[in-house]
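Hi everyone, sorry if this is the wrong subforum. Our group has a chain we'd like a structural model of before ordering constructs, and none of us has done structure prediction before. Sequence below.
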Amino acid sequence: MTERAENSRRVRESLATLTGHVRVRVLNCSAEGCLLEATGPLAIGTVGKLRVSFSGQEFEDAIQIVRCNPVEQTKGTHHLGGKFLSTSPPYAGTFRYVMRCDLGELAGWLDTQSGQ
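Answer:
Right subforum, don't worry. Here is the predicted structure as tokens:
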């Protein structure tokens, strides 16, 4: 087997996707990312989809974990720093959009979207 073919085979064997669900609580948020609280650690560099339920609606955004620190007062609890990965502007349906809306405006938008 040639060296190129061997390298190609190794790359194919090393690519994988692992999916799982981790319950988190959003503690703080900005335009660039958010501070999350989880019941366990996540590896720095982990990429995932943050899905948040707010007033009966679900919003989501892609994030990457950039920080993971244990909370000393609580056994097993960790604070996670998540960085938003999207390069598009926030739009309806994304968590970044919800965070930028005025709460009064958001309540009206949610009622309109749910058909109430």
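For your construct planning: The chain has a mean pLDDT of 78. Residues 3-14 form the longest helix (12 residues).
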